[in-house]
Amino acid sequence: MESLSGIEIFKKLRDKNIKFVDYSTLGKITGHTNKNTIYKLAERLVNKEVLVRVSPGLFLLKDAPISEFEIANYIYQPSYISLESALSFYGIIPQFAYTITSITTRKVKRILVEGKEYSYSKINEGLYWGYEKKSDILIASPEKALLDIMYFASKGISRPDFKEMDLTIIDKDKLLMEAKKFKSGFVLNKAIEITK
């Protein structure tokens, strides 16, 4: 089989609007089926800066229009954007967090991609809900992002300043209803306190 050049592979991926690449995708694009050949090809494409490695076997197409939130969803699954990143996205907290924060049911993890830190906080499966798809990202609703941060505050993991938050977009009835699902006195009491 004739081998495609790095530029040809880049063009094929770009033309098909493929931003995220794994070994399977690379095999389909190039027609290669031999795993060793695909691994070596991936290494070559990383070295030629066609692909950016984000973790073993996962790559981004260099210079593709990919948001940091899309990257966060892709590199560690299942996950959704929440905590400070979601609160900043909705304008609830004024500052933008340097680290992109997400919730997962897997173990806690921090991943560095091209100088940007992606942080994943673990929540049990019973609390893995309250997110929606906006464009190409999975992100907590404003209420769930607030509840997630309350939950981690109850564990002593975060110290949010609730007085600095702009809660005008929060649906207070929804917040209180969803707070009960956490089965945490701290979360429910904090939700009641900030909705007064």
List the helices and strands and how they pair.
Blueprint: H1 6-15, E1 20-22, H2 23-30, H3 35-47, E2 51-55, E3 58-61, H4 68-75, E4 79-81, H5 83-89, E5 100-104, E6 109-113, E7 116-122, E8 131-134, E9 137-140, H6 142-154, H7 172-179, H8 185-195
Parallel strand pairs: 5-7
Antiparallel strand pairs: 1-3, 2-3, 4-5, 6-7, 8-9
Helix pairs in contact: 5-6, 6-7, 6-8, 7-8
Which labels suit this protein?
196 residues, alpha+beta, three-stranded antiparallel sheet
What does this structure look like?
The chain is an alpha+beta fold and 196 residues long. It has 2 domains: 6-61; 68-195, no CATH class. The protein is 40% helix and 20% strand. The protein is built from 8 helices and 9 strands. Strands 4-5-7-6 form a 4-stranded mixed β-sheet. It has a 3-stranded antiparallel β-sheet with strand order 1-3-2. Strands 8-9 form a two-stranded antiparallel sheet. Strand 2 (51-55) and strand 3 form a beta hairpin. Helix 6 (142-154) packs across helix 7 (172-179). The radius of gyration is 20 Å and the shape is elongated. The termini are far apart. 32% of the residues are buried. The model has no long low-confidence stretch (mean pLDDT 92).
